[in-house]
Amino acid sequence: MIRILATDGIEQAAAEALRAKGFEVVEQFYPAEELGKQLKDFDVLVVRSATKVRQPIIDEAAEAGRLKLVIRGGVGIDNIDAKYAEEKGIAVRNTPNASSISVAELTLGHILAVTRFVALANVTMRDGKWEKKKYEGVEIFGKTIGLVGFGRIAKEVAKRAHALGMKVKYTDICGKAEGFDEFEFCDLNEIITTSDFVSMHIPFSKADGALIGEKELNAMKDGAFVINCSRGGIVDEAALLAALNSGKIAGAALDVFEDEPTANEALVNHPRVSVTPHIGASTVEAQKRIGEEIVETIEKFF
C-alpha cells in the first residue's frame, strides 16, 4: 500500500478521497530532527509552509529509498530543497493553480485596508476611541500598482486592480506576457521608481537575499506603499521599518515574514502596517482546490 504522510494537515475531503482509492494517509507533524527518520516508512510527503524539507531530511529519506514524491500544497516550493531532492530521485510537485484567486483577493484586501486604516481603526474603536480626523487615507483609483513577478497570482491581482481603476505595470524574468497588453511591461527599476504600490509576486532565494532593501525603498516615490503576500525575506524588514518611521514609505501590507511566526513586534504593531499571519491560501475554496490537485497529482504519479 502507498503510504502518504501529511505533516501540515490536508483537506479532509482529499484525505478521504485518497483513502477511498486505496492509499494510506497519516496526518502527523514531525520536527525536522525526526522527519527524515520517519520518511523511511512513507512513499509520499505532503507539506504546506510549516514543514521545511532540507538536505539532511532528503538525505535520510533517500538513503532509506522509499520516499518517491514530495508535494507542496501551495504555489511556492522554497521550503523544499527541490533541486537536491530531484537529484536524489525524489520528485517534487506543487499545486500552482489552487490558491491564485485567494492570494490575489487578500492582496487587494490588504491594499484597501492599509490605505484606509481599516485594521487600525478597528482596534482603536474597540478601545472606545473615535479618531476620525486621524484616518485620512488615499484612494487607489488612478494610482499605479507595480507587480514584481507576473505569474498566476500577479495576473489575478492585475485584473482586479485594473477593474478598480488602477494603472498596472509589471516586470518578470520571462519578459512580456502575451495577452496582457492592457498592462505595461517594464524593468524592475521603473516599477520601483514610478509605482504608488509595489507588490511582490516572486519566490524568495536565500542566495540572493532581500530584493527590496534600503536602496530600493529610498528609490521609491515618497508616500509609496509596499505589499508582500508572496514570501518572507523578499523585503528587508529592518529597512522597511526604518522607511515607515521616516515617512518615506506611507504604509505596508504583509502576509509573510522573514521568520514565521514572526517576533518583529515593531513592524507588526506599526500604525501604518496591515498584517496577517500567512493566510493567503486560507479560504475554503482554495483548500478544496489544493486538496483536489494533491489527489490528482498522487494518482497520476502512481
Structural class, by secondary structure, is: alpha/beta
| Overall mean confidence score, pLDDT | 96
Q: What's the name of the CATH homologous superfamily of the largest domain?
A: NAD(P)-binding Rossmann-like Domain
How many distinct domains? 2
Spans of at least 5 consecutive residues whose pLDDT stays below 50 are: none
CATH topology of the largest domain: Rossmann fold
Per-chain topology:
Layout: E1 3-6, H1 12-20, E2 24-27, H2 32-38, E3 44-47, H3 55-64, E4 69-72, H4 82-87, E5 91-94, H5 100-115, H6 118-126, E6 144-148, H7 152-163, E7 167-171, E8 184-185, H8 188-194, E9 197-200, H9 214-219, E10 224-228, H10 237-246, E11 249-254, H11 265-268, E12 273-275, H12 284-301
Parallel strand pairs: 1-2, 1-3, 3-4, 4-5, 6-7, 6-9, 7-8, 9-10, 10-11, 11-12
Helix pairs in contact: 1-12, 2-3, 5-7
